[in-house]
Hints:
By secondary structure, the protein is α/β, with parallel strands linked by helices. The protein has helices at 2-35, 39-52, 57-83, 87-106, 117-141, 145-155, 163-186, 190-201, 209-226, 239-245, 247-259, 274-285, 293-303, 336-339, 430-433, 438-470; strands at residues 228-232, 236-237, 269-271, 307-333, 371-394, 400-418.
Amino acid sequence: MTSRRTFTAVLLPAVLLSACVSAEDRLNEGIALQSQGRYVAAVYRYAEAIEKDRELVVARERLLAAGDSAVMVAMDGADDLERRGEPVEAAGLYREIDRMLARVRQVGLRIALPADYSAIRRAIFDNAINWQMVRGDEAYEAGRWRDARGYYIGARGDYLPSRDQVEESYDAETRVLLRWAQVELEDGRPRFAYDLAHEALGVRASPARETVLKVRDLQDAALDAGTVVLAVIPVMAEPGVRDWLGGEFEIQLDEDLGLDHWTRPPPFIEVADPIILRRELRGLLRGQATQSPLVVGRALDMIGADLAVMVRLTGVEVTEEDVDTDQHERVVERNWRSSSHGLGRGRGTERGRGRGPGEIPSDTLSPEVPADTVTYTTIRGMMAYYVEADIVLVDPSGREVNRFSASSTQRGPFERGEFDGDPGILDLEENHARFFDPTVIASQVAAIEGAVLEDLAVAIAAGTFDQVLAGIS
């Protein structure tokens, strides 16, 4: 305990010495900067020195002297910039002094300012704001919309504008956005016009009614000019994919898309009535199964659509990962193969409803009953499904205008059993019987396929909308 106190007594003076040295370092740095005429930078160094050592009087004195010089130099520099027609740069010098004065106040000091400092500063700021507004008006008249908007935003930025000045810049920015949107609409870029009109609503937190009405009219005109009508063809599948997933998969995918995703298209996309489309397709196909782009294009003309969306499931891959396999033994009646004849593989009788032929529990076999020891396997792991779809966009002439793919990969746990015979004769306990229960196995697969369906539907719809919108400027 004594040695610990001695160590602490030695350590504390070392820490204090380190702090004093650091304060002296900052003081010396400030003196060097002040001698170079870099008064603002010197003030920051002196402030750091004071924070480290409040008793360092020389740092306080030098801070006030350097701060006074910084103010005078900045005011002279701002006057010179004003005469040269650079009011924004002049206002920047005053903003630099504002930040310096705030730092000085943090260490409990204040720099004496000239009596006319506030009035001159306000005038400099007003000149900078007016310059920004004038440049914005010039850019507006020249059709340089982006520049004009930047000037108007800058006018209410760093120069402490009054409420009237802020409102004037809001009005100007709104005006330029609405005019810009109108020009873009006239030039055949309805989506860009729509977005610009929307930005005009966000200039103010509460836009004026007149602005809301102008934006609505502009956006309605943009939608009328640029909306694409999509006709969605029923989902199809390659034969090999259908054989693996079953026909229900593509039917369910088509229903999910039709009931959810195709009903909520983004602006500039409209989905044609699927009932009318399918009726026209049936008439054109006349019992044929092939939905060729040419036939689909003819259907588009009949229902007034601009593009058709053809979705075809083209690939499926199912893999088992992280597989854990265990082998188990069970004692059964010797004639189990013949006595279990007629029972389906993998299908056992339900527990509590009696046993099937040949089922003799191992714990009740007597020595007189011939018995065999058989082996069955339990398998656990993760099952991964990968399903891919090909999406083709077709125009009324039957021409393929775009093609892309969408896919989904989903994983889920699985467990199943393997046995060379009817697992019902094993008379397994519940924790092992489930490995052969077709209902359990089907539910595992259904959960993974359900996730694939949901994810694939999102990928197909989002991909389709993105591809269509990319063609609308």
